[in-house]
Amino acid sequence: MHTPLRTCIGCRATAAQSDLIRIAKVDGEPPRLTFDPAKNHPGRGAWLHHTQECLALAIKKNAFSRAFRTRVQPNELVITA
Q: Which domain holds residue 16?
């Protein structure tokens, strides 16, 4: 059976989709990012290890802007569950 692989936007390591969390962009001002535990939210998504280190790296590298192909400033991020 094939296991889907995804790349963490923080550490850039490839891992099984089941080992990463998906973050989806919700339209609005400011951009709102939401955790997508069911992995079925419409639109673009970014994959991230569930660690503080990977989140910090993603913010430092401006990875959210690249992943969502739009400008996302760290001070504008509102991550909801």
A: 5-80
CATH number of the domain residue 17 falls in: 3.30.1230.10
Low-confidence ranges of the chain (pLDDT < 70): 29-31, 73-81
Q: How many domains does the chain have?
A: 1
Model-level pTM? 0.82
One DSSP character per residue, the chain reads: -PPPEEE-TTT--EEEGGGSEEEEEE-SSS-EEEE-TTS--SS-EEEE-SSHHHHHHHHHTTHHHHHHTS---GGG--EE-
Backbone phi, psi, residue 5, to 5°: -110, 145
